[in-house]
Amino acid sequence: MYEEKASNYCHCRLCQKAIGAPVAVFTWVPTENFKFSKGQPKRYASSDKGDRLFCGDCGTPVGFDTKGPVIGVTVPTLDNPECFAPQQHIFVSSRQPWFKDNDGLPHLKEGPDSDSI
C-alpha cells in the first residue's frame, strides 16, 4: 500500500500520458488530511484505479485520487517540492528504454506492493 509521506517516481504508461513526460513524481498523503489551497481541480477517470486531477484553468496535472485512503499529489506543484524527494521508482516495467537514471533508489517492477527488481 502507498505509505503516508512516501514519494516516488512513477514510470507507468498512464502517468506518462497524463503528465506528458517519461516519469511523474508523486507524494502520497491521507485523503482526509489533504486540501487544495485554491479552488478544486477538474477530474478525469483515467482508469479503474482512480481519477487524474488537473487545474481547470491551465491544465496542469496536480494529482491522482485513488478514491481510497490516499491521494497522490504531483510533487512539482507543491509550494515546497524540495521537502518531498522520491524514495523509489515504481512501475519500471513501463519505463521508456531511453530514460536512464543513476540515483541509486530502489526500482519496483510494478507498484509499491510488488517486489524490487
TrEMBL record:
Keyword line: Lyase, Metal-binding, Zinc
Pfam families, per the entry: GFA
A molecular function (GO) term: metal ion binding
Source organism superkingdom: Eukaryota
Domain CENP-V/GFA as annotated: residue spans: 1-99
Stored InterPro entries: CENP-V/GFA, Mss4-like_sf
Similarity section: Belongs to the Gfa family.
Protein name, as recorded: CENP-V/GFA domain-containing protein
Organism field: Apatococcus fuscideae
